[in-house]
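mind reviewing both lines:
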Amino acid sequence: MGMAASQARFLGLTARKTNVEFEGQQINQQRTTLSNQSANYYNDLLGMSVPVPPSVDDYTKTVYTFEDGALTNQITAMIAQNDGTYTVSYLRQWTDDFSVVGASTSIVNANADKTQFKVGSTTLRKLGTIPTKADGTYDKDAGGADSYLESLSEDQIKQLKAEEDEYIKLLENKYGAGDYLVRYIQDTTTGEYNPYFYKLSDLQNANYDDNGNSQSNINCYKVGSETKTEEVKAVEDCLIEKDSSGRYINITIPNNGNPVTYSLTTSTVTDQDAYEDAMNQYEYEKYEYDQAINEINAKIEIIQSQDKNLELRLKQLDTEQKAISTEIDAVSQVIQKNTESTFKTFG
């Protein structure tokens, strides 16, 4: 190899080595950037709060109740006073057997101008208005055939009128003021007639087909049993007795100067609705958490794949740089020999 050729080869190898070193620096910089990104993602993972499922215990409380005849009383608050007494609040519950409650309804038929309504063959009658004859008995000519009313005596008609006046009060108090219609259905087992009520405005506002048959749901009511609740607040000067374990066992209520002691029943009650709401919220948060974890892991996998490719390229550059260095050493030796030979020739 001539002197000029060796020097040209040497310069070419030196330039190539410089390029390899520069590319290697660039790759290391890229890997550093990827490493920082990966560290940030891991920090995000560490900073995420793991959703915790709700505990039933958090929605379960101890409840104290006492019976007072037909009344069931549930204590809602017991506030201790400095003199050793307690101020107590409680919910009083009882069953009202003479109450109006919802009932299943049948198809109602209305005439064209919605002034008359029937269920089956029975015409609904305005509640509280009973057509009667001079002797006080039911006048079917004025009110239409009604087997129940026809079976009643004069005294029974009067009694029924008073009952229907009470029905009106109950209905208006619970379902709002307005006219109500009624029909009586005979119980095939007992033979007794039971009233079913409809609010006139509900009947008039319902949807009917061309034959006058109702197409929308119409509210219907009947006489039945209903649990009612009344809150008794801040009863002062109550006494609470505990057993050796600290559990409340008796309560004494002043009762206007005539104290009455009741045994307390202890039970645990879980607010199932609140617990299910909390569980639904947990499931939602867990879903979001899992989604966030999956997204971050996917990004980390991409970074790891990119870093792996850069690592492989860096190994290739390292191998190439070693080969270039070996060849540079060989060319340097050739140049050195050529130089020595040239100086000897002119020496």
